[in-house]
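The freezer alarm interrupted the setup, so I double-checked each line after restarting. Inputs confirmed:
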Amino acid sequence: MRSPGYGAFMARKAAARRYWLFKSEPDVYSFQDLLRDRKTFWDGVRNYQARNMLRDDVAVGDGVLFYHSNAEPMVVAGLCKVTKAGSPDPTAFDPRSKYHDPDSDPSDPTWFGVEVAPVCALEPPLERDRLKSVPALADMVLLQRGSRLSVQPVTAAEWRAVLALAGAKESW
DNA sequence: GCCAACGTTGGC
DNA sequence: GCCAACGTTGGC
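Predicted 3D structure, all chains:
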């Protein structure tokens, strides 16, 4: 009784593995910064849709594409993994932080973040223009007109297509 | 630098 | 609850 239930649980858990794309302006925080830091808390997200994903959906072990926005060139710079699930974003409570939100109550936090660690850089980085040329990626949230979300879901098929384009192997 | 798209704010 | 004004994001 216990074993089949546990096995099914583990199977579901494995099947539930998800993929994401996180945007960062490299002038603010780049993939190279993450390599240097070895891990980082993804703070400063102040959009409710993105918050909901960070708080509720992003799980330990999920894969993350680290995207450089507002840059020349715009690229997927590397792969990351989620090392801690959603927890309250401390910058919201710090009056000195540019992400300070005086309306966020520490006993009922508004804003959340996750911890990520680098897996590998993409060498060379995968340019946005290249992504746009791939039919399998036509529906990527990133490439939709007007798409501004800084935390986006990536389908398993899109994840595989991106890794194939980059010549990267899934390594965890 | 421009501006489309989108989210938020606040008057009513 | 509507919606106009405003601010921000981020590709181009």
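Quick read of the result. Chain A has a mean pLDDT of 91.
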